[in-house]
Design a protein that fits this description.
heterodimer; A: about 350 residues; Jelly Rolls; 2 domains; four-stranded antiparallel sheet; 13 strands; about 20% strand; B: about 250 residues; alpha+beta; three-stranded antiparallel sheet; 7 helices
Chain lengths: ~350, ~250
């Protein structure tokens, strides 16, 4: 598998002033070279894996952390068993030093067992860490979810997330393969649940793609792009872009920030997707076409179209959905669904 | 322990629960656990006492329903004759369970409803449907959810309350000797209550603190619930007279 296109690179932005508006408005991925190069964690990691581990441990509050554990046969890729009924890793709650010790024990092995802390809230286990290692969001009026990812060589199979994502490579090298949202059809998404990391993942093995079973994956590769991250670099992954992330070094740590463009009273569209699969998908083709037109009119077209020809006080859900309207819709749906 | 399973609307789509009260349905009990969160309702019908778990030393409250282990004087062939049925009975075959969920790497314990499938109130032919025809929650299930939540918060409130009562040294053992007739009398053992004398003697900071904790009110509810002993004795005597007439 070869991806020739490289993600665009932006240089010279400091961690206290990331170009967030510009990134979100562009809706395109970008590497921010050296964004977090001055973080103490990055400097420790450039010294050695041990220094980075010691630095992380110095903030640890002793709370157990959800950890993904797999044997060496999974090749660092949390995924499914052969019939997709179970995950190929176990989920355990472990202490940070336990995880770090296990990673260190197998640090020099070619094919180590997998030890992986996938996205744990930083303030939940490493209080104080952010004071020295942070990307500034406050100036943009954004309160992101701040998570840390710690592990040995791992692969986060290709998936999308609804929020915007700024992923900062602090320790180790990472390779991120990115696909635009509309490539979903060529990426062969797996079950909606269970999932290795909360989102449906592409079931194509990127390390060894089986093009006879997944021929459209060739097409996906045509629009793929590659972001190669060294310690200190960050990548901006726009909302809904598919990303496949390989942690390449014996010990790796990533810090990421997720933020939503919608206000808190707007719930995840995944609810709408589940509801739509349930209520629409298996109807006759003619009805589906009709509903497609209806959705195009009310949802996917210009936001103000369906209400534009009505007096403001008559618009209801056809006008902008504020907190009050969100409450009314929630009550209506709860009532409608409880049958 | 019965067969406790997590309630869900697929496996238990046809589940019904018998909500009438009868001896064979687990209602023939002489006392029932209660919680400070329902003292207000309970004290209007039943005497409230405390017991101590001999193994753990933990305090809990009980509402007294009768003078023998399986004697519920509020239960007759027409059902449970009281304006309020304690939550532990009203919850039927349901229990609170906790499901551990990882949210951002941290464990969150989400309360979920479990059902004891060995409970005699569990049915598929009789009683209240738990789920609506399409799998939604019935009003009955929503009420059960509220009762279970009440029990859950009641357990926590009970712990806090007993800590306050112990701090104020308000708990004292009580010997309850009930004479229902010349030849019949019962001793209820292992019961504790609020020491009225010590409660009256509380002053200053201790009284303010107990009041602010909200449990001063609870202490008085326990004391006023004692009036129900008289009702309990009346019920017992009615029963004895009815039995005498029948024989």
């Amino acid at each position: 598998m070869e991806v020739l296109r490289k993600t665009r690179v932006l240089e010279g932005y400091p961690a206290d002033n990331p170009p967030l508006e510009q990134l979100v408005n562009s809706a395109r991925p970008a590497v921010l070279r050296g964004l977090i190069k001055d973080w103490p964690l990055v400097r420790a990691g450039l010294g050695s894996a041990q220094e980075a581990m010691d630095y992380l441990r110095s903030f640890y509050n002793g709370k157990t952390i959800g950890t993904c554990v797999g044997d060496s046969s999974i090749g660092g890729r949390p995924f499914y068993n052969s019939d997709f009924t179970e995950l190929n890793t176990a989920h355990r709650r472990m202490r940070l030093e336990e995880v770090l010790n296990l990673i260190r024990e197998h640090l020099h092995e070619e094919r180590p067992p997998t030890f992986y802390i996938p996205s744990t809230t930083i303030d939940g286990c490493l209080p104080g860490f952010r004071q020295e290692n942070t990307v500034s969001f406050a100036a943009h009026g954004i309160e992101p979810i701040r998570s840390i990812w710690i592990g040995n060589r791992t692969i986060a199979s290709c998936h999308y997330d609804a929020p915007n994502n700024l992923a900062c490579c602090a320790v180790g090298r990472r390779r991120v393969t990115l696909f635009p949202p509309e490539q979903i059809v060529n990426l062969y998404p797996g079950p909606l649940e269970p999932t290795p990391g909360g989102q449906a993942v592409s079931i194509v093995d990127f390390a060894n793609p089986d093009f006879s079973r997944y021929p459209r994956f060739r097409e996906a590769l045509l629009s793929a792009q590659l972001a190669e991250l060294a310690p200190g670099d960050a990548v901006f992954i726009p909302s809904m872009w598919w990303h496949h992330i390989e942690a390449l070094s014996p010990f790796n740590t990533l810090v990421n920030y997720w933020w939503n463009s919608a206000p808190a009273h707007v719930p995840t569209p995944m609810n709408a997707l589940h509801y739509a699969m349930w209520t629409l998908r298996d109807r006759p083709e003619s009805e589906k076409r009709a509903w497609k037109a209806v959705f195009e009119y009310y949802v996917f077209g210009p936001s103000d179209r369906a209400g534009a020809h009505l007096p403001e006080q008559a618009r209801g859900a056809l006008g902008p959905i504020d907190d009050d309207k969100a409450r009314q819709l929630r009550a209506m749906l709860l009532n409608a669904l409880n049958r | 322990m019965g067969r406790h399973v997590m309630l869900n609307n697929v496996t238990h789509r046809n589940l019904r629960v018998i909500t009438r009260h009868a001896a064979g349905l687990g209602d023939d009990v002489g006392s029932v656990l209660t919680f400070p969160t329902e003292y207000g309702d309970v004290q209007r019908e039943y005497p409230i006492f405390f017991r101590k778990d001999p193994a753990t030393g933990e305090w809990f409250s009980v509402a007294i329903l009768g003078f023998q282990k399986n004697e519920n004087l509020f239960l007759d062939e027409t059902g449970w004759r009281a304006s309020y049925v304690p939550g532990v009975i009203a919850r039927g075959p349901f229990l609170i369970g906790f499901q551990e969920q990882d949210v951002g790497g941290e464990v969150r314990k989400n309360p979920v409803i479990h059902v004891d499938m060995d409970d005699p109130r569990v049915s598929e032919t009789e009683g209240e449907p738990v789920f609506l025809p399409q799998g939604g929650n019935s009003r009955y299930l929503e009420r059960i959810g509220a009762i279970l939540e009440g029990i859950h918060t009641g357990i926590e409130a009970g712990k806090a309350m007993f800590a306050e009562f112990e701090r104020c040294n308000l708990i004292e053992p009580v010997k309850v000797e009930v004479k229902v007739s010349e030849e019949e009398h019962y001793d209820l053992v292992g019961l504790y209550t609020i020491s009225e004398e010590r409660l009256r003697a509380l002053d200053g900071d201790a009284l303010v603190r107990l009041n602010r904790s909200g449990f001063l009110h609870g202490a008085f509810l326990v004391l006023s619930s004692m009036n129900n002993m008289k009702k309990l004795i009346d019920l017992k005597q009615n029963r004895l007279r009815a039995a005498a007439r029948a024989s």
